[in-house]
């Protein structure tokens, strides 16, 4: 078991989701105290109970990451509970509906941009001043392999995830000399309940077949597990990654490395 986060405080948004939870588990096992943030109150309660059963110090906060006042509130709640923020997994995001760009609903576009793009910006806007005041800290933003490629039918999601890389690189260039680092992870196709719900529709109920098909985009011929993303997040947030800044790490089984499919 790693002790790379011993004594540190980590904030995770989108913590009720699969990747958020897997990352919380990895950070807790490495010794971090946790503030779990999500708009899903029931999901937060479940995650808190699971982590507390492992002996982790855990607090939760319900927030809509697209609203500045609510982001400021979860930052303030973390400081009240723990006194500092050493690590921030700026992870909350939504996929949205699929449609061709020329037919995409404007309200749906705005909804996705508000969470995936503005939510990441607001997280940086409110957490970075805390870290800069401490003279130390690490941020990981959640991007996607869609940050590097076109994704038919997902113009809003794709645009938002491209923007996350821009925000990551800009913030990293601004704070790099201060003891604060900002990086991003780009998950590929990951095995989550949301993916299974999508595959249920696309493959007429044959989820296993859908996973096999989507697994072919990776050189490893399979989809990924949330924990495989979580361990990369833990590393990037730890001092073990002290010379990694402004990077976008693909966790995709090699999908972006090839034109195989």
Rg is: 18 Å
**Oligomerization category of the chains in this entry:** single chain
Helix-and-strand structural type: alpha/beta
* Strand order in the sheet with the most strands: 3-2-1-4-5-6-7
CATH architecture of the largest domain: 3-Layer(aba) Sandwich
The N- to C-terminal Cα distance equals 37 Å
CATH superfamily of the largest domain: NAD(P)-binding Rossmann-like Domain
Element-by-element helix/strand order: EHEHEHEHEHEHHHE
Reading off the top of the CATH hierarchy, the class of the largest domain is best stated as: Alpha Beta
Please tell me what the overall shape is.
globular
Count of separate DSSP helical elements = 8
Summarize the structure.
This protein has helices at residues 18-29, 41-53, 68-82, 106-134, 155-175, 193-202, 207-215, 226-237; strands at 9-13, 33-38, 58-62, 87-90, 137-142, 180-187, 248-251.
């Amino acid at each position: 078991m790693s002790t790379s986060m011993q004594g540190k405080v980590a904030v995770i948004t989108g913590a009720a989701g699969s990747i958020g939870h897997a990352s919380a588990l990895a950070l807790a096992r490495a010794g971090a105290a946790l503030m779990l943030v999500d708009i899903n109150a029931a999901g937060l309660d479940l995650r808190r109970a699971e982590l507390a059963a492992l002996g982790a110090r855990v607090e939760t906060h319900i927030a809509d990451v697209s609203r500045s006042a609510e982001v400021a509130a979860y930052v303030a709640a973390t400081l009240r509970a723990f006194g500092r923020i050493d690590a921030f997994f700026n992870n909350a995001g939504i996929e949205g509906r699929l449609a061709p760009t020329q037919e995409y609903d404007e309200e749906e576009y705005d909804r996705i941009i508000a969470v995936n793009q503005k939510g990441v910006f607001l997280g940086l806007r409110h957490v970075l001043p805390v870290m800069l005041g401490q003279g130390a800290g690490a941020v990981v933003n959640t991007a996607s392999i869609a940050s590097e490629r076109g994704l038919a039918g997902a113009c809003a999601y794709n645009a938002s995830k491209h923007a996350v890389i821009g925000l990551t690189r800009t913030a990293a260039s601004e704070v790099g000399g201060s003891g604060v680092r900002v990086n991003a992870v780009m998950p590929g196709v990951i095995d989550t309940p949301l993916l299974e719900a999508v595959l249920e529709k696309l493959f007429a109920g044959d989820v296993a077949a859908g996973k096999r098909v989507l697994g072919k985009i990776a050189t490893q011929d399979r989809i990924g597990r949330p924990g495989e993303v979580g361990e990369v997040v833990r590393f990037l947030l730890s001092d073990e990654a002290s010379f990694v800044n402004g990077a976008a790490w693909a966790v995709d089984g090699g999908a972006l490395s090839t034109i195989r499919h």
